[in-house]
Amino acid sequence: MSVPKNANHKAIIPPQHVAIIMDGNGRWAQQRFRPRVFGHQAGVKAVRRAVKAAIEHGVKSLTLFAFSSENWSRPENEVNLLMQLFMKVLQREIKLLDKNGVKLKIIGDLSRFSESLQTQINKAEQQTTNNNILTLNVAANYGGCWDITQSAQQLAQQVAKGELKPEQITEQKIAQNLCMAEQGPVDLLIRTGGDLRISNFVLWQAAYAELYFSKELWPDFDETCFENAVIEFSSRQRRFGKTGEQVEANS
Known about the structure:
43% of the residues lie in helices and 14% in strands. It has 251 residues and is of the alpha/beta class.
C-alpha cells in the first residue's frame, strides 16, 4: 500500500497507538428494525476492517473498547448475548489474527467472566503471544478509573509490605502497573456514533491523545473512515505542553 499524503502532499506519519470507542451498534440495528445483537454482529466485521487498516497504516497497537465495566447494567439478555458473541468471535477469529501476525491481549477485570470464557481468553492470548505486527488490545469489563485504581492498589500493597515508601510512588510507577504498561501511550482516540465523550476509556493512557469523533455508526466505520482519522491526526500539531513555536523549532 502506498503511503498516504495529506492536502499539502506530505507523507502521513501514522499514530503508533490507536484506541477506538466502538459506539453505535445498537442504533445501527434499530435503524434496520432488527434486534440490538444484530448490530453487535455487524460490528465484528468493522473490527476486522479496523485491524486490517491498522496493519496497513503501520499502527503498532490498536485498542478497542468492547465492553465497559458499566455495561453490566444493560438488559440481562443483551449482556448474555454479548458474552456468547465474545466467545464465538474468539474461537472464530484467533486463527486469522495469528496468521496476520497480530498479538491479542484482553485488558480489564476478567474475574467476572465465566471460567470457560477466561479459559478461551488465555488460550487465544497464548496462541498469539509471539506475534509482533500489531498488538490488538480488546478492553472487556474495563474502565479507566478501574485501571488506575487497581494500579494504586498494587502499589499500596507494596507500601504495606515495606517494599515501597509512599514518597516513592511516582507517575511512572503508577503507569507501570496499568493495563498496556508495556505499550506506548494512546496517540489517537477515535469515537464513532456521534457522541462527544470518552466514557471512562483509557483515561491515563490517553492523557495527550488526539481526539477524533466520527458520526459514522461503528458497523459503517470502514477503511476509508480509518484513513481519514489518520490523516486528520497527522495534520495536527502535538505540543505536549510546549508552545507551537517550540515544536516548530525542534521539528
